[in-house]
Amino acid sequence: MIELKYFGHSTFLVEIEGKSLLFDPFISPNSLASDINIDKITTDLVLVSHGHEDHVFDVERIVNNNDATLVSNFEIVTWFQKRGIKNVFGMNHGGTKVFDFCSVKYVNAVHSSSLPDGSYGGNPGGYVVSSNQGTFYYAGDTALSYDMKLIGDSFDIDFAILPIGDNFTMGITDALKAAEFVGTDKIIGMHYDTFAPIEINKKEAKSEAVKSGKELILLNIGESISL
């Protein structure tokens, strides 16, 4: 089983065989996640999809607390190296890194990417994580893309973590199509409700998913699920 814990916005802690990955840490500035103590979060890897502040704000603090390895595109890990982070692994689209408990493939995302100081953040991406416990797709911030069909052709995706807040990313309608493309009926929603432009009607989103034969899981902040 894969254990998934939600920390708000696009931040998830995924535990696999006693090891863990943390995606896009944006917790301390998020008023919806005010009950989360980020200094109690333990992780082996921190994976960053792109450079926007609402995906990288807590990277340094969490990486340094855990002596974790930062995984992202070359430009982002280089930027953090200049800020003192030593344990990094840079990737780019199409590349796969095999860690001791999972493999991580960096895949395309359709979005923009700049770092908090305005530096170039490279091209945005998502991740396909494969392990003995299952395979999942973390999309990052993205629009619907036909490239997602390549993921479905190459992997047996058990569940997909997809943005559903619209405005800056896909909304629920396109996210349901994305799930179809990657070949899963199970969606974990992210990137919604944090800011006014991405507030959604959760009841309507779940209803739309049911009509499409999909399951939309919207976790409460701090909630965990086994998949």
Automatic annotation (TrEMBL):
Entry GO MF terms: hydrolase activity
Higher taxonomy:
Bacteria, Pseudomonadati, Bacteroidota, Cytophagia, Cytophagales
Hydrolase in keyword set = yes
Homology family: Belongs to the UPF0173 family.
Which NCBIfam families does the UniProt record give? PRK00685.1
InterPro entries according to UniProt = Metallo-B-lactamas, RibonucZ/Hydroxyglut_hydro, UPF0173, UPF0173_UPF0282_UlaG_hydrolase
Q: What is this protein called?
A: UPF0173 metal-dependent hydrolase CQA01_29920
Which UniProt keywords are listed?
Hydrolase
| Ranges where the Metallo-beta-lactamase domain occurs | 8-191
Q: Name the PANTHER family on file.
A: UPF0173 METAL-DEPENDENT HYDROLASE MJ1163 (PTHR43546:SF3), UPF0173 METAL-DEPENDENT HYDROLASE MJ1163-RELATED (PTHR43546)
